[in-house]
Amino acid sequence: MKKLIRYMRLAVPALCLLSLAVPPAEAKKTDDKYNRYITFQNDFPFTVYPVIQVPADICDGKEATGDRRIIINYDAKMEGLPTGKKITVWIPRDQKQVIVDGKTVDKNCWYQSGRVYIFPVALKTYEDNIVKLDPLQTKVITKYDDPTHPSEAVDCYKGDNNAEGDAVKGDCKTGVSGASYSVDAPAQLAEFTFDADNATDQNMDTGDPMADIDVSMVDELYIPVAGSVANHGATGYMGGSASTVNPNGVNDLTQFKKRIDGFLTDPDGRGGRKKVWPVFAAYTSQYFNSQNKEINTFSDLLPKELGKSGGNTIIPHFPGGYNSIDMTLTRGPSTNYYTGTNYVTDKGPLITGVQYDEKTQKPSNALVQPYIDRWMFWVKDKDNPAFCADKARLDKLKWPDHVCKYDSKKAIQSCTFKHQYFCEKFQESVKVVWDHFTNDPVDGFNPNQAKVWEKCGFPKAPYPTDENTKNFCIIQQIVGYDSKVLGGDLPGRVQALLRGVAFEGNDPYDPNHPSVPKADVQQWQFDPFLTFAAPYDSQFNLNPYTRLVHDSGKDGLGSVSYSFSIDDKYGNFRDAASGFTVDAGGVTALENKRPYDPYQQYTVTWGYNRDQFSLAWLDTGTSIEGIKAKLEQIAENHGKRPFLLRQGDKLAVLGHDSSGAWHLTNPLTTKSDLEALAAQEMENSRGKSHTFQDLIDRVFLKKPADVFPAQALNVDAVVEQAIGVLNFDVDTGWPAGEARLYDQIALKKADVPQANNWVSLTTCGHQVPIRGPGAQTLPLKFDATKGYLPCEILAKDKFGDELKLSMAPEKKTGVVDIYTGSKVTDWTTLWGFRTGKKHTGAPPVTSDLNAKDLQYCIDKSSPYFSVSGFCNNVRTCLEKQNVVKSMVPGPDERSH
Q1: Fewer CB near the last or first residue (10 Å), C or N of the chain?
Q2: pTM value?
């Protein structure tokens, strides 16, 4: 019988294998995880022209102002990427030694801060037209004869990343430019980063390769483009337009246009439509080329699906919330058209509706003014305590979707939504945010008028004197979040306001009873059924553009994209991967054909045996690298425990590598890095989770007590009082913070424990690397008819014993949103794992497996006395609103 014991180390007999010599297989690009790639698929009914662009200053130094590009063609005979075709581009691995903070590092010249443009017009002709229309714009066009970076061929192949060879070779090459394409260029923008966790000296061809993708709609919106990292479909795609994808996985452009038109125009009361949001002026009929004049760079190049219809573009290109204000204030000119015959004097504004009174220096835009007035509806009464107590006013407010209308004639409303409380908290956030951006010493308009006016397009006095222009300027700073305040409530309040919801900063859970929510605290900013739910004409909708981008109901595109500058929760995704796919006009090439949903993620989390650590802190003047040998000797004399070291605002670890030798990780993390993670955690968890803050409190702020010894460690005169002990498997009062600390240790491979542990994990048929405790998003397969398909999860320990599960989310029914009282499964689809009968927490936080899943685990795992007995310890974790989030196998705490 095998005994459950902790941390026993047993000698394992050597195993000798006889191997035969075989010819080595020809190396493929996919064999090297540091070969990064981007796969492009075209699902549009017209050719697209992809461009990859990175800033030249990555390797050329901060004085470099231009960009480097990769121009992508399906083959030498065919410019661009035709309908239905796919091509994979392998990113060049150019490196250059540069000085960063006084240290020489190897920088990867094509990886970081990259952009992808998807043009629906012939790129070469468009670039030629830019210079033809305006000879001053030569910086924008791609050059292939630059002496510093002469054009080179880039490996690209027709098909997926496993396609190679001359028979499928595409035609891709590098070029340079002196400036990026203009914001109103006929293209949709996506952004990417290739980097690495645990990289050595910023060399992204070391460590664990990561890929980061977002489709940015902060500045503008044009055509649907989706992207996803190559993680076997573990997560949904970013960007796109889920609301208009047809059963074949292609965007229905007629439906896409219908939703765009519903945002840009309103009924005019006479059977027609009136414009209510600006568009880029180059896309309007009066500035198209005609038989007698050529004043536009691209109007003749647009495909028929996007081009002219009665003189206007079928699908217009238009600015986001920030740019609609900024381009009104700054009156920036377009370089894609002009209004007369002179390319210098006859440039027109970027967006429609812009007016400017030279005498009063007053800019205006009738299409943007309602947006400003919506803000001022709240600002003018921000200090009025009776504002939301006025029942007649509550009657007139237009509430978010699925919230009952307030009726002052009723003593009890027809839903549980707290109308007045929501209104008061919304008003409170408007006051806090407005007062900050008006009077704050650093960010405020009043103390910094010259600086702020310059940002608003008025570089020198005299400045505008009218109140409306000032309000334009302050709102511009808010929507663009022009602030260095990255923690606390301020960014959360701005995010909430721009998502159309009130903000509640108080923790809804009593610290003494964390499973019991406070009845009077409702954090609407974290309710997925309320964010972006305020209709376009609602007083709560302070940035209507965000609803167009995110809403997947009757109005919006259902896009997972940045809709404003700090919209990170919905706009950005990063995961372990060597590449990603960009699908223009659909989702047919994406491994996961469902959009990313931050509120419905399915992960498997595994436990792990962990070393005990010695604790010590060092004076800031001490070189940790310089005393490494002495620290190793001290560690040898203290049970060979690894050291967790604190020095100022950073942590370091002297730990074991996989062979048992000592190695130093310095820094492990810093206080500022943890603060950024804490702020993101608060956003992602809807305020429920503050584990990173718990870690910061204990390790750096010494609240309620310092976990480190009272005196500093002197390696030349060691006293036992200077060395503490941290046992991660003993409850010391801050388990959540401890778990986050060990996550950092495991992520950085700062210490590899010697006890028995899980050594491999397979999820849904894909092998997952094990580097300590952690979580892995499940690459679940979804069938439009059957729903989620079963996923087998197989964990192995170092003795070869297996724990096996088969899980599939099921459709949930009868789920009620506790904030609104709405039965959400009547109007949207929610999924979650099956749950058992034993729940913990109130409301439930975890449950055991249901009978069917438990029996599968027992039958399929190694015999009971090995690991199948742990099937009873597998927990299914749930989120509020009863959405199942993850499942947690317990740690394999055995040696045998």
Answers
A1: N
A2: 0.83
